[in-house]
Amino acid sequence: MTPALRAKVLHEWRPSFGDGDAHGQKSANSANQLVPLVMKQLGLGERLQQSQVFFLWPTIVGSDIARHAQPVSLKNGLLIVACDHPMWLQEITRYSKPLILQKVQERLGKKAVRDISFRIG
């Protein structure tokens, strides 16, 4: 097989990924764009958006709170967050909950997360 024929065959089999560079950077970028598109076509776009709270949590709440409180589930717009100590539960519930909810809703939308419940866990 000649190099030109090989390149043509590869291009026909991978048109959505392009040629890519030596490290596969273009392929990785295309895959990052392709996954959300496929999830949306499967009707899972909203769930993919909701799952972002688990990945974005330290960015949303900051490293101090993230060390002591982690999201454990998100169902029907209710985000359940487990705190590692009663003091943190009281502190977050009393003083930080409205701000945390606002930040989460800014990132994910009010429809995705309508309320947060903090628990010991």
Structure summarized in a few sentences:
With 121 residues, the protein is of the alpha+beta class. It has 2 domains: 3-41, no CATH class; 45-120, 2-Layer Sandwich (GMP Synthetase, Chain A, domain 3), CATH 3.30.300.180. It has helices at 3-13, 25-41, 45-61, 63-68, 86-108, and strands at residues 69-75, 78-83, 115-120.
The CATH superfamily name of the largest domain is DnaA, N-terminal domain
The first-level CATH class of the largest domain is given as: Alpha Beta
Q: Approximately how much beta-strand content do the residues carry? A: 15-25%
* Biggest sheet, spatial arrangement of strands: 1-2-3
Distance between the ends: 61 Å
CATH topology term of the largest domain? GMP Synthetase, Chain A, domain 3
- Average pLDDT, rounded to a whole number, is 83
Order of helices and strands: HHHHEEHE
Q: How many domains, in number, for the residues?
A: 2
- CATH architectural arrangement of the largest domain: 2-Layer Sandwich
Question: For the CA atoms, what is the radius of gyration?
Answer: 21 Å
Could you walk me through the main structural features you see in this protein, from its secondary elements to its overall organization?
The protein has helices at residues 3-13, 25-41, 45-61, 63-68, 86-108, and strands at 69-75, 78-83, 115-120. With 121 residues, it is α+β, with helices and mostly antiparallel strands. The protein has 2 domains: 3-41, no CATH class; 45-120, GMP Synthetase, Chain A, domain 3, CATH 3.30.300. A 3-stranded mixed β-sheet has the order 1-2-3. The longest helix is centred in the last third of the chain and has 23 residues, at 86-108.
